[in-house]
Amino acid sequence: MSVFLDILASVGMWEAVLRIATPLILGTLGVLLCERVGVLNLGIEGIMTFGAMIGWLTVYSGGDLWTGMLVAALGGAMFGFLHALLTVPLGLSQHVTGLGITLFASSFSYYVFRLAVPTASSPPTVEPFRPLEIPLFADIPFLGPVLFNQTAPTYLALVMVALLAWVLYRTPLGLAIRMAGENPHAVDAQGIDPIWLRIGTIMAGSALMGMGGAFLTLAAFNSFFPTMIQGRGWICVALVVFASWRPARALLGALLFAFFDAYQLRLQTVVEGVPYQLFLMLPYVLSIVALILMARRARVPQALMQPYRRGER
Amino acid sequence: MTPVLELSGITKRFGHVTANEDVSLHLDKGEIVSLLGENGAGKTTLMSILFGHYTADEGTVRVEGQELPPGRSRAAIRAGVGMVHQHFALAPNLTVLENVMTGTEPLWKLRSDRAAGRRKLVDLSARFGLKVEPDARVSDLSVGECQRVEILKALYNDARILILDEPTAVLTAQEAESLFATLRQMTGEGLSLIFISHKLHEVMSASDRVVVLRRGKVVAERRTSDTTREELAELMVGRKVERPARPPATPGAVLLEGVDLHVSGKGGASLQGISFKLRAGETLGIIGVSGNGQTTLAGLVSGLMAPDSGALLVKGQTVATHDVPHAIAAGIGRIPEDRNAEGTIGDMATWENAVLERIWSPDFSRRGVVRRAAARSATEDIIKGYDVRGATVDGRIRLLSGGNMQKLILGRVLEAGPDILVAAQPSRGLDEGAIAGVHERLLEARGRGAGVLLISEDLDEVIALSDNIRAIVNGRLSPAIPAERANAQLLGLMMAGDWSAAEAIEAENTHAI
After folding, report:
1. DSSP characters for B466-510?
2. Least confident of A59-73, A120-134, B413-427, B443-457
3. pLDDT value of position B248
């Protein structure tokens, strides 16, 4: 029994939770933003892949790490624009378009990667973000290394949670975004064009997804390989439901999932005689359970997945 | 004096259809002008142009002498034009305050000033007597309250001109009364109003001036004091419309009987021990303010719910199984209250809607396979026989206007030859021409020997169609009075729960029956 508790008492475990959570936080915030304005964005899996690739490629070709993050955000926004164009003014099925974007962006990423790195058999690496110790705070026992010895993008993700919550709940723009996800006709009636509002918001959300992907190549694995997102995007889609479309709960959800993931990784090494695939499954199973418990009373944005056309109801 | 609002020479075409043709009208300060016209006359299109939702092909809109740029809602709002939409433009999951404040501050402001917004809202709400709770979630509000929020939204934007698009379509009679009082108060405060409607009595009682629109053109303009309902009806429809008269009844055997029925309906609309009899060839009208149990009563007879106690007898037999197939099999035809939500499936074809209710009958399916040809030809017959305009057998039914959709429902129900017909608010939201058509069909069914249970809030309708009238109040039924003895005052008393006069009349009649 004590091995299970030992894991929980280790600094490494909790440090890993925040690290694993970072791309999930960014991705979940991205999906949340899109859905709050009324558009499902299943392009996330591909957009994260593209962000991971283009961020890595930027740094690999000599850009600095922050330029890499920025390019990943722009790349995400670009695919977001494509998704928005197809789903908002044209009103195409958001499911189909999103899955299409995922397939397209994933393949396109690999294509560009192979153009840039045609020969290498093992993926080339870059110098990643290093942990950034926050003076004084990092010296707090246990909490210090867990919370204040992370890489800069992790801090950024946490700031983003607060920022997004502020924008959504405290600014006129956020109110308009939420309104567009509830009833775009109402937004139009108040003199704001819901089409542009949706396009802009989807682009912003997709930029966050791109950054979430770039975290993996620039702060976790140091190199790009095509299958590296491994369903993280889909987890983000589920986490938004778990979070009832609220940023703070999105953070909670991402941490919870990351906790399961970090825990199962360590269990694999200490528990013998159990196939490791069983542990790999654990976070997903627990996510479904959490989803069932949390999401039943959620208030779904009423206009989610409804294209807006003027004069039609 | 310059009018506060002036539309001149507005023309709008959608493809080959001309929705508005050379329409001009003006609105003076402090005035209520009704825009009267049947469904499809172009009223809403005209107002959408004024509000910048559509761009006119020709013509201009001036507010206080200033021309509005076309196609810009923002400009209309800034100029002081507020619109109260027929289908509320509200977000159900947001609070009243949030709904009202959306779009009223610069979008890129870093912090929304909620406190100031709340003060302004509370102020307006007190000044105009529009009571709302700023922090209530809109989904928790009644329809009447939602409309108050819609009006407050416009006032919050400092509207001086308010356009109300069929504001009473979804309101109960009482809510409508209180709305009219509010509108009067607003003109006193210097607002000017345009009120879109196809209901003659509202237009007559609420407005100073009436502009009549027919097929996209202004056909007449009258001061309300110089005109009559009859004249307006004729102007609006373009011919003399007469609602059909009710021939004398020849009541037969009791077809439907309720004995001390109790139903615990949802949301307080329960039935608390009601008893009634409906005979063949007779129409029993049930009046009442909505929410007093009429929906529950209709649902009970239609087989949608079962009573907790008491019995429902159809043709003398107690109904054992309360479900829809049994109700239909027993010969009960149903015209539901909400034709969009319950009467039809908007995105399915007309023929599917026409036969869905009887899809298991051997006429329309055999061994689990739909007999398309039979279903389609039956639909064809309904479309022809009931003059369902604009309908094609394969077209989606949501594209039909309310009146034509109701004709299709009538056709569907009556073609099955029901012995008992439950008609809940059958002419709600319909215009004069369509109402006359519906009434004709209901009288026809009665003439054929069906018993008609007519549930309606429209007193004129109930008096015109019913042989006997009862009021439903808090889940109880008043004594029945014959329609000949009914007048607005007596029915008003009955709906308010004062049944002494009705009891006297019933006692008088008992020995006669």
Report:
1. -SEEEEEETTEEPPPEEGGG--HHHHHHHHHT--HHHHHHHHHHH
2. A120-134
3. 86
Domain ranges of chain B: 5-237, 254-331+417-512, 342-413
Rounded to an integer, the average pLDDT of B363-387 is: 92
Interface mutation vs chain A, best among B107, B140, B163, most A CBs within 10 Å = B107
The per-residue pLDDT for range B84-125, each reduced to its tens digit, is: 988 888 998 999 999 999 999 999 999 999 999 999 999 999
The one-character DSSP state at B322 is -
State which residues of chain A have pLDDT below 50: 313
Of B53, B105, B112, the CB nearest to A311: B53
As a whole number of Å, the CA-based R_g of chain A is 20
For A175, the closest of B85, B101, B153 (CB atoms) is B101
Those residues of chain B whose CB sits closer than 8 Å to some CB in chain A are 48, 53-54, 72-74, 76-78, 83, 85, 87, 89-94, 98-99, 101-112, 153, 157
Q: What pLDDT was estimated at residue B459?
A: 87
pLDDT higher than threshold 70 for residue B268: no
- Which of A167, A187, A190 has the highest number of chain B CBs within 10 A, making it the mutation to test binding with B? A190
Query: Do residue A175 and residue B102 have CB atoms under 8 angstroms apart?
Result: yes
* pLDDT value, residue A106: 97
Cα angle, residue B132 at apex, residues B131 and B134 outer, rounded to 5° = 145
Cα-Cα-Cα-Cα torsion B102, B104, B109, B114, nearest 10 degrees, comes to -70
Interface contact flag, A178 B94, Cβ < 8 Å: yes
CATH code assigned to B5-237: 3.40.50.300
pLDDT per position as a tens digit, A55-105: 999 999 999 999 999 999 999 999 999 999 999 999 999 999 999 999 999
- Chain B's closest residue to A179, CA to CA, is B91
- DSSP state letters, B278-304: EETT-EEEEE--TTSSHHHHHHHHHTS
Residue B314, strand partner residues: B256, B317
Write the residue in A176, A182, A192 that is nearest to B93 by C-beta: A182
End-to-end CA distance of chain B: 65
Tens digit of pLDDT for each residue in B305-363?
A: 899 999 999 999 999 999 998 999 899 999 998 888 888 998 899 999 999 888 888 88
Can you tell me the distance from the alpha carbon of B293 to that of B261, in angstroms, rounded to the nearest whole number? 12
**How many other C-beta atoms lie within 10 A of the C-beta of residue B342?**
16
Question: Which residues on chain B are in Cβ contact (under 8 Å) with A299?
Answer: 93
Other C-beta atoms closer than 10 Å to the C-beta of B474 total 15
CA atoms of B133 and A179, how far apart (whole Å):
19
**CATH C-level class of A2-118+153-294:** mainly alpha
| CATH class of the domain whose range is B254-331+417-512 | alpha beta
Cβ neighbours of A302 in B, within 8 Å:
91-93
CA distance A207 to chain B (A): 19
- Residue extents of the structural domains in chain A: 2-118+153-294
Query: Using 50, 70 and 90 to split pLDDT, how confident is the model at B457?
Result: confident
Q: Is the pTM of this model over 0.90?
A: no
Compute the Cα dihedral for B260, B264, B266, B270 and give only its sign: positive
Please give the distance of CA B391 from its chain centroid, rounded to a whole number: 21
- Which sign does the torsion angle of CA B157, B161, B166, B167 carry? positive
> Are B5-237 and B254-331+417-512 the same fold in CATH?
yes
Per-residue confidence at B282, pLDDT binned at 50, 70, 90? very high
Largest CA distance in chain B: 78
Q: Are B160 and B80 in contact (CB under 8 A)?
A: yes
Q: Who has greater pLDDT, B16 or B442?
A: B442
Which residues of chain A are at the B interface, by a Cβ-Cβ cutoff of 8 Å?
170-176, 178-179, 182-183, 185-192, 299, 301-302, 310-311, 313
